[in-house]
Amino acid sequence: MLIGLTGTPGTGKTSVSKLLEKKRQWKIIHLNELIKEEHLYTEVDEKRDSVVADMELVRSRLPELINEMEKEPANKVVILESHLAHYITDIVIVLRAYPPELKKRLEKRGYSEEKVNENAEAESIDLILAEAFEWCDKVFEINTTGRTAEETAGDVEKIIDSLLSGKEEQLQEYGPGSLDWIDSVP
Fold it and tell me: Where is this region: NMP?
């Protein structure tokens, strides 16, 4: 089963996915790293200190990689971790964070003020959640505000375990749309 773990930068995707990889031995594709390592991008955006992913190249590369991971007998889950994961997977978990807290997280990373504000605004207007609705069949939402990566990983596990066991009805608390941070837009 391929699951996307997406969200605005700073919501905890990488920390959570690393915990799940260690605890559950689920395979993780850190998409942003893959894009950079395999040059699956069209250009370097110097201003944003990032690359512009070539989604066609990404989509053509992933099936082979995922098939290899799924061949391992004990592996039932592959997690695609990236703020772009919702463009690729049919099932996605969107990690969210209250924008003022998100700003603090991104400032600690040393992001420029412009990049911090751009990401906080994107989170305020539910940008990735809205895109996930457009691209994905199943969307779940987890609030990471004031929570540890371990706590958030527990929620991700619950969602994935429920999906694997066909008990999706147990996931109402993760239904998208419960978080509204529009008031945090400056």
Answer: 30-53
Domain ranges of the chain: 2-171
Residue set of the binding site: 10, 12-15, 109
Predicted TM-score (pTM) of this structure: 0.92
| pLDDT over 80 at 72, yes or no | no
Express each pLDDT in 11-41 by its tens digit.
999 999 999 999 998 999 999 999 999 999 9
pLDDT tens-place string over residues 131-149: 999 999 999 999 999 999 9
Mind giving me the DSSP string for 112-158? Answer: -HHHHHHHHHHHHTTHHHHHHHHH-SEEEEEE-TT--HHHHHHHHHH
CA dist 143 and 112 (Å) reads 24
Annotated binding site for ATP: 10, 12-15, 109
DSSP reduced 3-state for 93: strand
Q: What is the 3-state secondary structure (H, E, C) of 50-84?
A: EEEECHHHHHHHHHHHHHHHHCCCCCCCEEEECCC
3-state helix/strand/coil string of 146-165: CCCHHHHHHHHHHHHHHHHC
Both tokens of 181, joined, read 């941070």
Q: In this structure, are residues 13 and 102 in contact, taking their beta carbons and an 8 Å threshold?
A: no
